[in-house]
Amino acid sequence: MNDTPAFVSRRILAMTGARPPAAARAFTVAAGAALIASGVVHAQLYLDGYRYLHAVGMLFLLQAAASFGFGPLLLAGALLRPPALIRLAAAGTALGALAGFAASRTTGVLGFIEHGLQPAPQALISIVTECATVLALLAAGYLTVRHGKPASRPPAAS
User: Fold this and answer.
1) Would you state the pLDDT for residue 64?
2) 3-state SS record for 93-158
3) Which residue in 96, 85, 102, 84 sits closest to 130, CA to CA?
4) Residues 6+ apart with CB under 8 A from 28
5) pLDDT of residue 41
6) What's the pLDDT at 103?
7) Cα separation of 19 and 73, whole Å?
8) Does the pLDDT at position 113 exceed 70?
9) pLDDT at position 120 over 90
């Protein structure tokens, strides 16, 4: 009878570098690709004129740089297991961009306000890619943790 707690078996799985299931790897690749696409949108907007906006332009450049940094790390990590810090940073990058988008349409960001889904189609592409990044990372994380849990057994008869 194995009385090893689940968190210990997940820790051993993480230390041995065992590969996550194929579906988790596919979601990680999707998250990396979506994050890179988000970076492309923000880099294009930066080059097309947002660079002239005080402070906001630098935020677009920072988001693009973070996306171009973490996206390929997710793609490479899909072969093994990307560290949790990489997954969290990638999710934070996408969530930060979504928060900036929402703020720029409501209260404004450092005095900068936009309306609706302008500029089109970049605004919509940005929303879709950032939501896809977060959802794919959540799915990959769930499948990876579930894969590391020992199979549940019925209680032993006394």
Assistant:
1) 97
2) HHHHHHHHHHHHHCCCECCECCCCCCCCCHHHHHHHHHHHHHHHHHHHHHHHHHHHCCCCCCCCCC
3) 96
4) 20, 74, 75, 77, 78, 82, 87, 136, 137, 140
5) 97
6) 95
7) 16
8) yes
9) no
By residue count, the chain amounts to 158
pLDDT at 7: 53
CA–centroid distance for 128 within its chain: 12
The answer for residues whose C-beta is within 8 angstroms of residue 7's C-beta and 6 or more apart is none
| Residue 77, number of CB atoms within 10 A of its CB | 20
Could you tell me if 41 and 123 are in contact, meaning their C-beta atoms sit under 8 angstroms apart?
A: no
Please say whether the beta carbons of 90 and 137 come within 8 A: yes
Q: Is the dihedral of CA 37, 38, 40, 44 positive or negative?
A: positive
User: Count of CB atoms within 10 A of residue 4's CB?
Assistant: 9
